[in-house]
Amino acid sequence: MSDRERSTGSGRLVAGVAWAMLLLGLWLWGREVTDVRQGISAPTTGDAAAVGRPDDVELPPSAEPLADARPRRIDIPSMGVQASVVASGLDEQGAIDPPPLSGAGAVGWYAAGTRPGAAGAALFVGHVDTESRPAVFYRLSAVRIGETVRVVRDDGTVAEFTVDDVRVMDRDRFDARQAYGVRRPGRAELRLITCGGTFDRASRTYTANVIVSAYLTGGAPARSATAPPGATDRAGPRPRALGPRE
């Protein structure tokens, strides 16, 4: 076997392990919520079903990827969300380490993966609720194709993305490659992920995941984005460990 063949084979093995770890992490993450919902549940149901796909929406062309930069804030106008971003890794169990429930208004960015605006799929996770109230991504399933997501970055630019898919995937039939794989090679994309379906009190987990996909359609100086009153653009704490631990 040539050195190139060994390298290719090893790369495929690492990629396969990475996808498996990411899938396991998302499944475990859904269990990290209390079983006291006080009447709150994720406002979504379905099995790998698209949520609201208007046929008459004309999507803009994709923009060229931007230089690497870390995210500081994410704005989703249709949801009324302007949230700080914290770097996330994986915990000791291999689960994605989202912001703590005490900071459920923040969004976690998987820092070992793609930076938003660069080629590839940048991964963002957020809680749907806490034990007593809705959280940052409670209305994620209400996002519609053609709507805008903006990411304020630490190089002073805003990466603007256009939503092209909203999907609810049943956990028992979850396809990580379909959910998180790059749809078009070389394109800058992002995924917004939260829990969905119904909350199963017996297993203490949600029955599905909501995945919003978007692609880069523009960039602008950060000063063109409107910050919410009292908001900060301070990057969140670094996770305990960074690296290729998908």
TrEMBL record:
GO terms for molecular function: hydrolase activity. Keywords: Hydrolase, Membrane, Transmembrane, Transmembrane helix. The keyword Chloroplast does not apply. The keyword Ion transport does not apply. The lineage of its organism: Bacteria, Bacillati, Actinomycetota, Actinomycetes, Kitasatosporales. The chain crosses the membrane at residues 12-30. This is Class F sortase. NCBIfam families: class_F_sortase. It comes from the Bacteria. Residues 42-73, 221-246 are annotated as: Disordered.
